[in-house]
Amino acid sequence: MKALYSDWEQQSKTLSLTSEKNNSDSIFSPPWPMELDKESQLFSEGLVSVRDLHEYKTLTKKEKLLIMSNELNNFFSINIFGESQVILDFKSLLKKNYPHLVTEYIQHFVSDEINHSKWFSKFIDLYQGKKFSPVFKVKKQEIDSDENILKIFVKIYIFEQISLFYSNALVRDRNVNELVKRINAQHLLEETSHLAFGEAAIKYFVQKTEFVNKGVNLSFKKHIRDFIETNWLSFYNPEIYVGVFSEPVKISDLAFQNPKQLTFRNDVTRTILKKLENIGLRLN
Ligand SMILES: [Fe+2]
Ligand SMILES: [Fe+2]
User: Fold this and answer.
1) Are 149 and 93 in contact (CB under 8 A)?
2) What is the number of the ligand closest to the CA of 197?
3) What's the CATH number where 167 sits?
4) How many domains does the chain have?
């Protein structure tokens, strides 16, 4: 049984060393200007949730900038709520007595997530007012079986992959505000380690959990599919459109149902599910 731990332990050890070298606090050092330039673009146009709607294309530049600012607020808010869930999950998992090296990295992981939430909250508080409401609720999850623990790791992995996709695009877009890029670049770096840990954990539980070998059951697959759907839905939060469109809920529905958006989401989801399949977990 001990041998099963080795890759996960080894990966945890490497990631703890990386994490110790990392200076996450540097994000808080200047420049955080008193206020942002009004012309500053806070989000990537290629990620805007309403980009494929005719209603968006006819907006003024100022309105588009407001939508982009709201999109960033929503993205940071999603991260803050998701990070609260991750922190809660890992605090429960710490009671499981995993090997020392694994536990040690989980502590780094939790402390990274606490930091990320601080950066995102600071940005929103300074420049954007208030956080948006979460579409999903943070809740305590069952850790009574390997199947349930695997479910938690898979959800964290999917959540972080989607978040990484957005951070990556924001960092690469030269039109995006420098501070936004800097925060996302650091996020990207740390999330890359989290995902490496997630992959090692998933591999471990896939090997250990019998039901995976027999074929993942329908309720597990449905649970993950529903989670992915809710996750995506949160990127179409009606609060993004307030102040620009008179019917934010209608715009949210139109954007979510837009065929190009469906293709976009399916492409990202497919890539993530493929990565899971490559580490031994087939969910479709
Ligand atoms: Fe994070
Ligand atoms: Fe993370």
Assistant:
1) yes
2) 2
3) 1.10.620.20
4) 1
Is 125 inside a domain boundary? yes
182 CA distance to ligand 1 middle (Å): 14
Centre of ligand 1 from the C-alpha of residue 83, in Å? 6
pTM of the complete model beyond 0.85: yes
Is residue 2 over pLDDT 90?
A: no
For ligand 1, the distance from its centroid to the CA atom of residue 186, given in whole angstroms, is 10
> What 3-state class would DSSP assign to 149?
helix
**Residue 38 belongs to a domain:** no
Q: Say which ligand is closest to the CA of 160.
A: 2
| CA of 193, nearest ligand number | 2
- Across-strand partners of 197? none
Domain of residue 211: give its range.
49-278
User: Tens digit of pLDDT for each residue in 70-110?
Assistant: 999 999 999 999 999 999 999 999 998 899 999 999 999 99
Which ligand has the minimum distance to the alpha carbon of residue 187?
Answer: 1
What is the Å distance from ligand 2's center to 195 Cα?
7
- Rounded CA-CA distance 19/21 in Å is 5
Q: Write out pLDDT tens, residues 186-242.
A: 999 999 999 999 999 999 999 888 777 677 888 999 999 999 999 999 999 999 999
Ligand nearest to the CA of 115: 1
Token pair 């497919």: residue: 270
* DSSP percent split of the chain into helix, strand, coil, nearest 5: 75, 0, 25
